[in-house]
Write a structure and sequence with these properties.
Helix content: 40-55%
Distance between the termini: 227 Å
Oligomer: single chain
Strand content: 15-25%
Order of helices and strands: HEEEHHEEHEHEHEHEHEHHEEEE
CATH superfamily of the largest domain: Response regulator
Shape: rod-shaped
Number of helices: 10
Number of strands: 14
Radius of gyration: 65 Å
Length: 408
């Protein structure tokens, strides 16, 4: 049986590839890893099955130094965002086969429009999925606490946006105190989904009033990690209001769409929190002023009532004295009148008695035809009182008396 050497086989493959891929071709794939060595970029390219997410194809690619300078000039500030693991790209390059190093793909150009298109398609799919589950407005309906003090911040510890956020809150003009707890997470790259989801879940378990997701800005591709369904789901279903300040000016990420309140920058999030507390304080101060005003009115009214009562109380004793004085005068007059009546009545009774006594006087009785008999010693009222020894008796009449000699 005839056998070929490995070199012969690889030479044959090289000739076949050279004949079939004479011109550069465009390849759609996903960057699995990117490394830089001496100005050259070494890429691992993969393709995943859309239904299972399994890797169905894999290859290596290289962007040599000179070609990399050209691509950087073309992509400008988007270079790092596009040439990052997990990003879907459309690469133009030459298929090269080396008998020693095997198959490789030398990249000469990149189509950024394809990458943006892929991100937009993915973003729209995530939005549609969230809408189908009625999750878009859920977190927006969660009420903010009257005062925000305990703040869970999801950000990178070294991010400038996080430092700006903390400084803005700490140096607020009202002197409000805030308890800021950082839940560190990657804000871009392949770790964003896993770490942000974990941070949200941890923040929900602690005693926080709100969750603030902040970063220091970046390109649209830098922010694409927040177009992730799992992150958006955690935000939408959070029992705590989620404020986002991811750092964009125009477009909103899916995370912004499902959040309670979306703000442009971390500083804007801090200002929003300060203003929210200031508004509550203003309402409290207004209520205090209203209470003071109403209290002052009540005090004035009660003071007037007290003064009126004082006037009444000061006049009541005088009225009472006058009334008692009148009652005493009336009683005095009644007593005098009754006394005079009683005296007159007694006088009449005395007069009657006097008249009766006058009528019973011996002289008055004798005027009516009576006479009195007396012996030498006393008046005699009965015959038996006249003794044998009495010689003479005297009969006394009204107008005189006579001597009667007793017979022996």
């Amino acid at each position: 049986m005839e056998a070929y050497s490995l070199l012969e086989v690889n030479q044959y493959i090289k000739r076949v590839l050279a004949l079939n891929f004479e011109e550069p071709i465009w390849v759609e794939c996903e960057l699995n890893s990117v490394s830089n060595s001496r100005g050259n970029l070494y890429l691992d390219l993969i393709e995943k099955d859309e239904s299972s997410d399994d890797v169905v194809a894999k290859a290596s690619a290289t962007i040599w130094y000179r070609q990399f300078l050209f691509i950087k000039k073309k992509l400008k500030e988007l270079t790092d965002s596009i040439l990052s693991p997990g990003v879907k790209v459309k690469l133009k390059g030459n298929i090269v086969f080396s008998e020693r190093y095997g198959l490789s793909f030398n990249v000469i150009d990149i189509d950024p429009a394809f990458t943006f298109g892929q991100f937009e398609m993915n973003r729209q799919k995530v939005i549609d999925k969230l809408k189908s589950k009625d999750l878009i407005e859920v977190n927006a309906s969660v009420p903010l606490p009257s005062v925000i003090q305990n703040i869970a911040v999801i950000s990178s510890e070294t991010a400038a946006g996080y430092q700006d956020f903390v400084s803005q809150l700490s140096e607020n003009a009202y002197g409000y105190d805030f308890n800021i707890k950082l839940y560190a997470a990657a804000m871009q790259g392949q770790k964003t989904e896993r770490e942000v989801v974990a941070a949200i879940q941890a923040a929900k378990k602690d005693d926080n009033h709100i969750i603030a997701i902040i970063r220091g800005g970046g390109s649209k591709l830098d922010l694409s990690g927040f177009d992730n369904y799992n992150i958006a789901f955690e935000i939408a279903t959070s029992p705590l209001p989620v404020l986002t300040g991811i750092g964009h000016d125009i477009d909103m990420t899916v995370s912004d769409i499902v959040s309670h309140t979306v703000l442009k920058t971390p500083t804007a999030v801090a200002d929003y929190i300060i203003d929210h507390n200031s508004q509550f304080e203003g309402e409290i101060l207004l209520m205090m002023q209203q209470i003071e005003h109403e209290t002052q009115q009540i005090l004035e009214l009660k003071n007037q009532e007290l003064m009126l009562m004082q006037e009444k109380l000061s006049s009541i004793p005088s009225l009472i004295v006058q009334q008692y004085r009148h009652d005493l005068n009336t009683a005095y007059d009644n007593i005098l009148s009754q006394a005079e009546y009683m005296i007159k009545d007694h006088n009449r009774t005395l007069d009657n008695y006097t008249q009766m006594l006058e009528m019973t006087k011996p002289k008055n009785v004798m005027k009516r035809g009576f006479a009195m008999v007396k012996n030498d010693k006393a008046y005699v009222g009965k015959i038996k009182d006249i003794k044998k020894s009495d010689k003479d008796l005297t009969i006394e009449f009204y107008d005189g008396e006579i001597q009667v000699t007793k017979r022996q």
